[in-house]
Amino acid sequence: MGPPVTRLVLTGAHVVIGDGTVLDHATVVVDGDRISSVESDPAPTAGDLRPDDRVIALDGRTVMPGMVNCHFHATYHRLGSVPAPFGLEEPMAMQVVRAVRNLERLVLAGFTGAVSAGAPFAIDASMKTAIDRGLIMGPRLVPCSRDISTTGHAGDLSFPAHWEVGALGAIRRSDGPDEFRRSVRQEIKEGAEMIKIFVTGGHGTIGPREQTEVSAEELAAAIDAAHQRGARVRGHIANKEALLMALDLGIDIVDHGDGMDDECIDRLLATDTPLVPSMLFPARFLESMGGASLGFTDAMRTDIEAMAAVLPVANAAGVRLVLGDDFGALGFPHGPYAEEIAYYVEEIGIPALDVLTWATRNGAEVLGMGDELGTVTPGKLADLLVIDGDPVSDVNLLRDPDAFLAVLLGGRLVTDRLPSEQLLAEQLPADRR
């Protein structure tokens, strides 16, 4: 990734602003690490240009904000294929290597920001430090904790041998409010800026979604401890009662939200709490089972159908929805991250422009950088994508690596396949010189 050019002038752009609006025939100027102007045609005149400007005629190609994945597991690799506790399937060094590779993949797929949903051994915190120091290429990252929940919860697959050794892996077992406070404080000490709590079973776990796995007192203690130290809390939640409890207690992000109904929608709106539905993994997992009726697959099918019905309602009501899913789980490899966008548009029926807003403006807000990112707006940081086509008309363009003509991260070109025909001042039409 090279240094930012002095100015990058993109003319004739179709601009997906990121807030649900579009602008045609526009010129976007990137100066250093920020967007300096976004203006409708006419194109710049020679007097508007500097000698070292790089001026590209996009001829209707799209400029849009970089996207944000708000539920990302950088270390996951075929999760569920190895009979071992989460986070202990491979040596820590191997998981670090995988995290580096997956974070780079995420950026190249157009996701310039990521909010982690959990990782072992404080790997996320190290990844953030390495990215910030320029040691590796990766997105703007909010590092997450291990999964915190009670002994024997749906994600607690530890064996007696591990109990004796005390190996934590990706799980920090905690029981009672005091232990939850201590666990949260320890994870923050190790670099977590986001705390992950398994509030219920369900949604891809072996535990039933009706099973609430923490008490209100435990969850309240965790949220209070995190907020005292400037961290946020996200919760794996897959039943209505737990969802309402978590919202009442001030949880910051709801993962999954199975069991959501109109009452939940009203509460999500009242608290302005973002929801990460992450429907794609269970849907694809169910497809891989070939329609088998195995008890848990029947429950999964019911949950997917219910969410498919209520999610468009939540979107239309204005719930702050964002992208992110369990890429890296068994049968759901890292890489095709934009498949999630196509799923919500083509299979759930959400308008494409709405889902792109989830990915951009809403994602930037969950990243904690809504004032700096998420829309193609003058003054904001230049995390931008240039797409060969219009993803509003065809969201599958975002699944095609060849469609990404440029990925900019803070004005720096991570990917540069922009048209080679650079306009020079003397090449402008006579009336623009």
Q: Could you characterize the architecture of this molecule?
A:
This protein is α/β, with parallel strands linked by helices. The chain has 2 domains: 7-66 and 373-432, Urease, subunit C, domain 1 (Roll), CATH 2.30.40; 67-337, Alpha-Beta Barrel (TIM Barrel). Helices cover 31% and strands 21% of the residues. The chain is built from 11 helices and 17 strands. The chain has helices at 92-108, 123-132, 160-165, 177-189, 216-228, 240-249, 262-271, 280-288, 296-317, 339-347, 352-367, and strands at residues 7-16, 22-31, 34-40, 54-57, 62-65, 67-72, 111-116, 140-142, 144-149, 171-173, 194-198, 232-237, 253-256, 275-276, 384-387, 404-409, 412-416. Strands 1, 2, 3, 4, 5, 15, 16 and 17 form an 8-stranded mixed beta sheet that branches. A hairpin with a 2-residue loop joins β16 (404-409) and β17 (412-416).
- Look at the structure and give the mean pLDDT: 91
The CATH level-2 architecture of the largest domain is identified as Alpha-Beta Barrel
CATH topology of the largest domain: TIM Barrel
- The CATH superfamily name of the largest domain is Metal-dependent hydrolases
Beta-strand residue percentage: 15-25%
Order of helices and strands: EEEEEEHEHEEHEHEHEHEHEHHHHEEE
Major beta sheet, specifics?
A: 8 strands, mixed
Structural domain tally: 2
C-alpha end-to-end distance: 33 Å
Radius of gyration: 22 Å
**Count of extended strands:** 17
Q: Multimeric state of these chains?
A: single chain
